Predict the 3D structure of the following.
Amino acid sequence: MIEHETRAEGKITVFHLKDDLTTDRVKSFLKKMNDLISEGRHFLVIDLGEVVEVSLMGMVALSSTFNRCRQAGGALKIAHLTPRVRRAFRSTNLINTIEVYDEILDAVKSFRSQNLLRSKNFSGSFFLKDRNAFVGWDRLPITGPMN
């Protein structure tokens, strides 16, 4: 079993991985990813903020999940790479394949180009530090390369 927390908002699922993605945990991770994709959760953000180590098999599992999401018409994005995991992403060149974001909010907002935020099933809000307030999904500011 792999420790995680999953939060779904409309069509986007945020998966907070709380374990290292070592070889002995890959099978459990892939089962969870396959279950989510089979349930129609094709738009995934994986938060790796608590992950210190990712084995080569773990990198293959992330790549496989990325490909399955794309084949299902969705996308996989990664948030919060720790320094060691970022090095693993660079050494395997996965950093040039999967979109990586420093913040979960930025990864979620990047789905805006796919018009997911206009979905009638999409609800919720995020706390924005600069406004010191919660802001609804439909009122999230678009900044940076998404303009």
Remarks:
- The mean pLDDT is 83.
- The radius of gyration is 15 Å.
- The chain is about 30% helix and 20% strand.
